[in-house]
Amino acid sequence: MQYSHSDAELIRQPIGYWSWAAYKAVVSRTRGALAELGTTQPQWWVLAQIARSGSVRTRDEVSAVLRNYLDTGEEGLRAEIDATVGRGWVTEDGSGRLALTPEGMTFFDKVAALQDELWAERHAGVTDEEYLTTLKVLQRFIHNTGGQAWHH
After folding, report:
1. CA-to-CA distance for 97 and 60, rounded, in angstroms?
2. What is the mean pLDDT of residues 123-129?
3. Which of 1, 27, 91, 150 is the most exposed place for a label (fewest CB within 10 A)?
């Protein structure tokens, strides 16, 4: 890979631009690959929250975790949960408890395999140490600018 600038020039590049460009590239690639399987990124998040929770979760619990992901918002997330129910991947009982259907579990497994492939693609040539440093630096930028990031 050829970098855009020399090291001396890169050190003066704006983090806002490069973090935005990385976001755009990663999210666009992820959403495009998910669309090929017939789903959206928020629908994947819903399936993953239900499949990996280890306990039954309600719509409100799933929504509380996911509503701030990439500015999805409460209404957008509700529509995505409704879509997973409408597609037959998730059931919802009268108390709002969500569960994967057998079809939903099969689809979850398929999308999880795709996510593993995308992870490997993104991380090609990036060591765990470099990745860890990158995340810590980004979190430091967020902290230094008074921002807040929330994940899980």
Report:
1. 9
2. 97
3. 1
Token pair listed for 44: 């994947």
pTM of the entire predicted model: 0.89
41-65 b/e with 16+ CB inside 10 Å = b?
bbbbbbbbbbbeeeeebebebbbeb
Q: List residues bridging with 90 in a β-sheet.
A: 100
d(CA 132, CA 67): 25
pLDDT classification of 87: cutoffs 50, 70, 90: very high
| CB-CB contact of 30 with 41 (8 Å) | yes
Segment holding 98, helix H or strand E:
strand 97-100
Q: Inform me whether the pLDDT recorded for 147 exceeds 70.
A: yes
C-alpha 63/C-alpha 57 separation (Å) is: 10
Half-sphere exposure of 108 (CA within 13 A, CB side): 19
Q: Which residues contact 1 (CB under 8 A, 6 or more apart)?
A: 125
Q: Which amino acid is at 106?
A: T
pLDDT at 17 over 70: yes
